[in-house]
Amino acid sequence: MSKRYNPLALAKQKQEWDIRSKYVRKKLIDLNMNQRELAAMVPMRYQYLNDILQGKRSGAKYWRRIMEILEAAERNERP
Q1: Taking the chain, what is the end-to-end CA distance rounded to the nearest angstrom?
Q2: Got the DSSP string for 12-51?
Q3: How far apart are CA 49 and CA 35, in angstroms?
Q4: How far apart are CA 50 and CA 4, in angstroms?
């Protein structure tokens, strides 16, 4: 049996991704940091980070680390 298409579930996923992506981009601007620097701190390829922020990849295992790094950078601490 095939999976059923649920537009509400997909819309919710896109909304969650969009909120997280905007938050990360705003924090990068506030911290005067670019995606390459953040990717190096995670560590991951900057292309993969870009795909995550554009919603092309889920990046589920990296979100917690990304948020930890941004919060630590905001407090001027080493992650």
Answers
A1: 46
A2: HHHHHHHHHHHHHHHHHHHTT--HHHHHHHTTS-HHHHHH
A3: 7
A4: 30
Half-sphere exposure of 53 (CA within 13 A, CB side): 21
pLDDT of the chain, 79 residues: tens digit per residue: 456 767 777 677 777 778 889 999 999 999 999 999 999 999 999 999 999 999 888 888 999 999 999 999 988 866 5
Q: Which of helix, strand or coil describes residue 53? A: helix
pTM greater than 0.85 (yes/no): no
